């Protein structure tokens, strides 16, 4: 007995026919069919075909290939439905995958936009604080006016008091506060 005749031993080199196809091309093809099946043009052509089919089978005596219960027409519609439903589902699955990718990208962009907005808000707050510490024209004018007033008071005060107060103290001592 050879190995081929024994059913309890597997074949060592079984040659299987492998389909090598591009899944993307099949998906695009199925989407194009699903898009076509959902158009008004397809429904119009199918309606015309059904009417012609029924009229020919009812009234053309010599061309009757599918008599009244229209079994062949039902078979054609069943075959069409058997292929159309999986193609439509495949197209929907592909669309769902594209939507998921787009949603993930939108979510990533939203997070990046939020992070950028928060960063800009912090930078704007820091700039506001920094501008608050910058000397403004009004502040500088007020300080200069106060200095001018102090200088005019010192110039109007008697010079003897200023000389006496500085002469009483030693160079390293602190002056008493008034």
TrEMBL record:
**The organism sits in which domain of life?**
Bacteria
Locations of Basic and acidic residues compositional bias?
166-178
The reply to whether Transmembrane helix figures as a keyword in the UniProt entry is yes
The answer, when asked if NAD is one of the entry's keywords, is no
Membrane-spanning residues: 42-65, 71-91
* Keywords tagged on the record: Membrane, Transmembrane, Transmembrane helix
Q: Where is this region: Disordered?
A: 151-178
Pfam family name, one:
DUF1003
> What is the recorded name of this protein?
DUF1003 domain-containing protein
User: From what organism does this protein derive?
Assistant: Mycolicibacterium flavescens (Mycobacterium flavescens)
């Amino acid at each position: 007995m050879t190995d081929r005749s024994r059913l309890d031993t597997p074949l060592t080199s079984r040659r299987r026919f492998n389909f090598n196809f591009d899944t993307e091309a099949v998906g695009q093809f199925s989407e194009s069919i699903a898009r076509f099946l959902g158009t008004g043009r397809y429904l119009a052509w199918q309606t015309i075909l059904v009417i012609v089919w029924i009229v020919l089978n009812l009234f053309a005596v010599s061309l009757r290939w599918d008599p009244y219960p229209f079994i062949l027409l039902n078979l054609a519609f069943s075959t069409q439905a058997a292929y159309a439903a999986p193609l439509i589902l495949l197209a929907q699955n592909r669309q769902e995958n594209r939507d998921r990718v787009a949603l993930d990208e939108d979510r990533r962009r939203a997070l990046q936009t939020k992070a950028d907005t928060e960063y800009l808000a912090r930078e704007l707050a820091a700039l506001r604080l920094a501008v608050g510490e910058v000397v403004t024209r009004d502040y500088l004018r007020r300080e200069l006016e106060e200095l001018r007033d102090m200088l005019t008071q010192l110039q109007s005060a008697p010079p003897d008091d200023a000389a006496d107060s500085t002469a009483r103290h030693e160079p390293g001592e602190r002056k008493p506060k008034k």
